[in-house]
Amino acid sequence: MSSLPTDQRLPIGFDDNTLRQLVGDFSEQQLLWLSGYFYGRYAAGPGPAAAPEPAAPPVATAARPRITVLYGSQTGNSKKVALQAVEAARQRGLDATARDMNDYQGRELGKEQVLLLVVSTQGEGEPPVAAEELHRFLGSARAPQLPALRYSVLALGDRSYLHFCQTGRDFDERLSKLGATALAPRVDCDLDFQADAQQWMAAALDALGQATPAAASVKSPPVEVKEYARHHPLTVEVLEKIQLNGRGSTKETYHLELSLAGAGLQYEPGDALAVVPTNSAALVEEVLRATQLGADAPVQLQGETLPLATVLAERLELSTLSRDVLERYARHHPAPRLRELAGATEQLQRYLYGRDAADLLVDYPAELSAQQLVDTLRPLPARAYSLASSLLAHPDEAHLTVGAVRYDAHGRRKQGACSCYLADRVQVGDQLRVFVERNEYFKLPQNPDANIIMVGAGTGVAPFRGFVEERAERGAGGLNWLLFGNPHFTTDFLYQAEWQQHFKRGTLAKLHVAFSRDQAAKIYVHNRLLEHAREVYDWLENGAYFYVCGDRQRLAATVHRALVSVVQQAQGVSPEAAEAYVRGLKKQRRYLEDVY
Amino acid sequence: MTNQSQLSEVEHVKEASNYLRGTLRESVQNPLTGALYPDDTHLIKFHGSYQQTDRDLDSERKRQKLEPLYSFMIRVRVPGGVATPAQWLRMDDLADEYANGTLKLTTRQTFQLHGVLKRDLQQTIQGFNAALLDSIAGCGDVNRNVMCGANPHESELHAAVYEVSKQISAHLTPQTTAYWELWLNGEPHLSTEPAEDTEPIYGKTYLPRKFKIALAVPPYNDTDIFANDIGLIAVEENGALAGFNVAIGGGMGMTFGMPDTYPRLADLIGFVPTAQVVDVCEKVVTIQRDWGNRQNRKFSRLKYTIDRVGLDGFVAELQQRLGYEIQPARPYRFAMSSDAFGWAQSADGRLHLTLFVEGGRVQDTAAVQLKTALREVAGFHTGEFRLTGNQNLVVANISPQHRTRIEQVLARHGVLNATTARTALRLGALACVALNTCTLAFAEAERYLPQLLDRLDAVIRAHDLANEGILIRMTGCPNGCARPYLGEIGLVGKAVGRYNLYLGASHRGERLNKLYREMLDEDGIIRELTPLLAAYSQHRLPAERFGDFVIRQGYVRATTHGQNFHAA
């Protein structure tokens, strides 16, 4: 910690080492907060004054295991759950500490007694960057035997992906192989993870034999209950809706402005706003027709009795088909072909692609009761969109940039559930149900003087509108560089007039555009990065933060490769060394992705 | 002779431009906008192009957080309006590849492409060049495209007069290499080899304003020579071209609310033999270069210079600079300023076909596939295409064996019918481009006139006037691109859907019209014109033209000079 004084005379009772241990890996921000906290403790006079954390009730040290809650987080969800677990443990009088895998050395595992591990899984079953090293270490020959360790894994994921919760499974398997004992079975969570996560915490902590919550200091309920969430969304009014693409575009992108007036909803640039959609009447109709079930048939869902059509429209996912739905459906269906499909990964992926619930019901008709249908389908998730605004620039407003998803597949016009809900069925003056999804890491640098490079394609430009607005409002000294790509200059230069203004005023220092279809050879943002390789490298060397937002498949990988090539050119090193440099940037959280 | 500090903004831009370069290169390469830097929008005109926006979309795109849809009109010079079939095919290709898929034939016998994006400017201009066409001096404060009567009836005389128009054009073309440097990668034009940047005629600030020259062969005044800074009337003696009667100081433009601005017809100043005509044009240009108003562009045209110093004073200076006297004008007679449609045969046995092109717009519609038809014709035609000053087209010098084939192609695509089934009113109509691309337009013209004509045709037919040529001309602003002040019916846009109605110009292009009613909407136009047309049908004298009739009947007084155009 370079910010610690090293040669000052220290007060009574402290030596340099003790202090260093105390402050650990705190960030400057955390140190600043702590200075205020300790001053508050001091000012409140002697004794255990009003502390933000409840003092742990006395428990016999011998019986009290030390718990480490280790998280590997990409968007911040794992971190959030980990902090809740620490809180829950402390309420039981247990000694728990949260640690980020990003800053955790594999060999520290040997000293752990109880390990609660929370980790998410990325696209094709790979770990988040923060978890990569530990993941690799545990699978390597250097991993120590861990016979004394008791552990449990909470895996976060998305059931619609083939390698659902793969990273969590890997950790579970490897810890088990190294001789560790499972405290409680691993829990694999889908997008809607809150309830499962709470159960997992309770199960793991119960297994430690400290079942009684600390009676004295029962605290306010966990933070997330106060927050707006999937089951407790905020209703906001649509103030403005604008189609951003000029006439003749092949794209259909909407700019939405929502009123947060009076709601007290806070967000930071980089956060996402989740929107709770409803399914289109046409799709509900398709499903009813395929199943020949009545719209009014009463069904049970989460303790409520509702008409089938209502549940289909408002509560269940219809527009995409996922593995879990197909597996459940196969149980109701006699066709061996369907059972085979459920078991064969590659064929299954091919089948799921471009199909929705109605396609499945038409392809494999089954005698199904309304209740069975409801139990087979999965809950309708909210869709998160990167916020495109800064609260400083637009007080009490949240702006979104939404690309309407439409395509023809398997004989029907398919529509993105939420994008087309916003595109087709939501008008100015209507109410939307929303909540903020924090994006822990995809944030502006704490240091306003740090430069930033932003690479956005299509709607991926959204968070950068918020970033630049925020930095402009704050008068941040760091330079902003935007690279934007889309098919056509005349129709698809999203927020063109605003970028031109920022560029003129200097709140955008550099602006490069790539319009892929305006010339014979396709040009993309990564081509622009390569064209300006030297400057990109110089900025990075100078401490710049590098942000990427857009399509996971098409953008994230090519930009990563381009950046490796930028580093390789600049340093004259091997691809492996350049790759290590770029990975290093990710690990330092200076290379941040918001991809989907 | 002018105080530097009072010079207009454009004069400073020209002065600093290093012979029309400015920062055009950087402007064109800037990928963040479809527009040029503001100063360069003045300079691009000298290269033949105007920066425009799609005004239909301006407010929509503003809401969409997009800049206006900038594009460029490019005007290709065609001296005398004569293009080869290969050039026609090239323009047709370029219209599809880089522009909006149409060709506009202008009232100055040029091709215009509309909707060319900035990033395609260079490719488009290179495309012209490959067909030996260029757009330099298509617009700007220089001598513009030199017009020459299309004259399908007089092949030999036409050839001689056309030759003179090309000589004048070449002599007055700017010498700067900027055009080749910016658009053609520095390669010299095949027919020109400029050595270094000097402008012996223009100087580095060029003219104070645009400059126009037209030639005509009586009895056809299809180039409206009196609307030009210099009008040249061919004089034939013993079957050969002897020289030209010279008229100076014509111009159409004026500004609403500024009575000091006015349209003006050129004054006849005498006769010069063919050998001296280029010299005379050069000297008129240089006097205007030295004497023209460079402080206020609204008073910069030659017509105001002449009215300021007096015609006699101007001619005296001209003769001084020439070093010889201009002879007295020879007799001549114009019969009409419109085109004669259909087939004609010249003395040499060659055939010529004059086609109606509504609004000058070569395009394919459901009823008439003019663009496709002309493309087919250009594929085998061995003569040339002549653009007329009335936005029409002559397929000229057709070899007799092609006549049937051309007729078949044109009939198949509905083109012949379009020429023969129309009223004479529609066939003679002129309209400028106006909305949605012209930045100056207050009202519609080209897009709207056909619709108005549908209603007027009904009135015309009801009064048995379908074959009476009455010149109707509509513009979207008072600047006069479609020469509205020489319309027997002139309609000049004042606001969207509102027009001033002018009456009483001569059918021969020899008298300006006069304001009759202001701010008429469509119903108002029909309401005002219906009784006049009815009266004309009933009370006209034999062979009396509508423009003369309204004056004889006292509906308007005759305008005898630009300076009494505004007088009631």
TrEMBL record, chain A:
Residues 231-445 form the FAD-binding FR-type domain. PROSITE patterns: FAD_FR (PS51384), FLAVODOXIN_LIKE (PS50902). InterPro entries: CysJ, CysJ-like_FAD-binding, FAD-bd_FR_type, Flavdoxin-like, Flavodoxin/NO_synth, Flavoprot_Pyr_Nucl_cyt_Rdtase, Flavoprotein-like_sf, FNR_nucleotide-bd. Binds 1 FMN per subunit. Binds 1 FAD per subunit. It holds the Pfam family FAD_binding_1. NADP(+) binds at residues 516-517. FAD binds at residues 383-386, 401-403, 407, 416-419, 596. Its EC number is 1.8.1.2. Its cofactor is FMN; FAD. The keyword Flavoprotein applies. Residues 67-205 form the Flavodoxin-like domain. SUPFAM superfamilies: Ferredoxin reductase-like, C-terminal NADP-linked domain, Flavoproteins, Riboflavin synthase domain-like. It catalyses: hydrogen sulfide + 3 NADP(+) + 3 H2O = sulfite + 3 NADPH + 4 H(+). One of its GO terms (biological process) is cysteine biosynthetic process. It comes from the Bacteria. The keyword Oxidoreductase applies. Keywords: Amino-acid biosynthesis, Cysteine biosynthesis, Electron transport, FAD, Flavoprotein, FMN, NADP, Oxidoreductase, Transport. FMN binds at residues 120-123, 156-165. PANTHER family: NADPH OXIDOREDUCTASE A, NITRIC OXIDE SYNTHASE-RELATED. This is assimilatory sulfite reductase (NADPH). It comes from Hymenobacter edaphi. The lineage of its organism: Bacteria, Pseudomonadati, Bacteroidota, Cytophagia, Cytophagales.
UniProtKB/TrEMBL annotation, chain B:
One of its GO terms (cellular component) is sulfite reductase complex (NADPH). It comes from the Bacteria. Its EC number is 1.8.1.2. The keyword Cell inner membrane does not apply. Its cofactor is [4Fe-4S] cluster; siroheme. NCBIfam families: CysI, PRK13504.1. HAMAP family: CysI. Component of the sulfite reductase complex that catalyzes the 6-electron reduction of sulfite to sulfide. This is one of several activities required for the biosynthesis of L-cysteine from sulfate. This is Sulfite reductase [NADPH] hemoprotein beta-component. It comes from Hymenobacter edaphi.
